[in-house]
Design a protein that fits this description.
By secondary structure, this protein is mainly alpha-helical. It contains seven helices and two strands. The chain has one domain. Strand 1 and strand 2 form a beta hairpin.
């Protein structure tokens, strides 16, 4: 997470620039920031606190990309709400990406033969009554 935060701060000026389109900013996010944040995420065992931190990080980046919006009623500038960010960013959120990568990785490991020795080390050799 620290390296992803450092990566975000290195491109922060690009993401808030008015000279770049939103599509280019999203491409920067997907190609420069996400790979750093999601490095080896297939092996993570996330707890709810970590999932929340990842969602907060993603929303912070998306708020920087999409900027402020003028409220239709009051005319004041305001930050985008999470639901508005989800509507504008038409991709799965970061936690869903991690879950899909873990499922894909689990499928690769499950298809490995026992001669490779990974089944016992990944899931353990548990007897039927063990929990």
């Amino acid at each position: 997470m620290r390296s992803g935060n450092a990566c975000y701060h290195s491109v922060q000026n690009l993401l808030s620039s008015r000279m770049l389109s939103i599509n280019i900013k999203i491409k920067i996010y997907r190609t420069k920031i996400l790979p750093v944040v999601l490095y080896a995420c297939e092996t993570w065992s996330l707890i709810l606190r970590e999932e929340r931190k990842l969602r907060v990080f993603e929303n912070m980046v998306l708020r920087r990309i999409f900027g402020l919006r003028r409220d239709e009623v009051t005319g004041e500038w305001r930050r985008l709400h999470n639901e508005e960010l989800n509507d504008l960013y038409c991709s799965p959120n970061i936690v869903r990406v991690i879950q899909s990568r873990r499922m894909r990785w689990d499928g690769h490991v499950a298809r490995m033969g026992e001669e490779r020795g990974c089944i016992g080390s990944c899931w353990g050799n548990r007897r039927e009554g063990d929990h």
